[in-house]
Amino acid sequence: MIRYLPLLALPALAACAPATESPPQSPGGAPAAAYMALGTEPGWTLEITPDRLNYDGDYGATKIMVPNPGAKPSPNGERYMTERLTVDITRGECSDGMSDRRYRDTVTLTADGKTVKGCGGGILPPTDLAGTIWTFVSIGGVAVAADRPTSLQFDGTRLIGSAGCNRFSGNYTHADRTLTADALIATEMACPGAGMTQENTFFALMRGPVSLSFPTDGTLILTGAEGRTAVLKRVI
């Protein structure tokens, strides 16, 4: 059995607000506990905290942890220099090379004489929702049930997903900062426990206009007219 849900209207992607200048230990956006960077081939990650530089390179084979010397200004960015690590952070859009995720900064790192390149700082919003897939982190301020798979997929002009129980879908278009979906078609199954509760909360959120925001951690936040929210993390 299927059921039709009310029309869905969402504001389209908002423009990314310009980031403010950061303190030396937290480049790339508003002050944060740690600045993260990553690269591929070979895989590596870098964490910059107010106290330390923590580098994990060569797919985990190389580990370097040194005190944070503080950042020095460099052209369009900053530099960290220690005996074993040199990190150059440059403001400029960067792709991680493995997906279409875009980051605010380009990062060049030299560890024990070996130089690698990658991305860091805040994650930028996708240029288009079409082709992106997300999973729910929380709905209505409550973490989604771990045993209830969820998804929200923007497949061309169709919106497809599950909020923890039934599958729903419908056509959508977006213009003038508004994304509008046709009446959504959903299966009609009864799910025990949290699955049905979180689904009902999500459908209630989607009954009216919903704003989209993209924090720099890469999540997507849907906010309804009554202040209900759904937080999602990107899969693709």
Walk me through the structure.
The protein folds into two domains: about 90 residues; about 110 residues, Lipocalin (Beta Barrel), CATH 2.40.128. It is about 5% helix and about 50% strand. It is built from one helix and 21 strands. Strands 1, 2, 12, 13, 14, 15, 16, 17, 18, 19, 20 and 21 form a twelve-stranded antiparallel β-sheet that branches. The chain starts with a strand and ends with a strand.
CATH architecture of the largest domain: Beta Barrel
Average predicted confidence as pLDDT: 84
Instruction: Give me the count of strands.
Output: 21
In the predicted model, the low-confidence regions spanning at least 5 consecutive residues are: 6-31
Give descriptors for this structure.
236 residues, mainly beta, Lipocalin, twelve-stranded antiparallel sheet, 50% strand, elongated
Produce the secondary structure layout.
Elements: E1 2-4, E2 8-11, E3 35-39, E4 44-48, E5 52-57, E6 62-67, E7 72-74, E8 77-81, E9 85-95, E10 102-111, E11 114-123, E12 133-139, E13 142-143, E14 151-155, E15 158-162, E16 167-175, E17 178-181, E18 185-187, H1 194-205, E19 210-213, E20 219-224, E21 229-234
Antiparallel strand pairs: 1-18, 2-17, 3-4, 3-11, 4-5, 5-6, 7-8, 8-9, 9-10, 10-11, 12-13, 12-14, 12-21, 14-15, 15-16, 16-17, 16-18, 19-20, 20-21
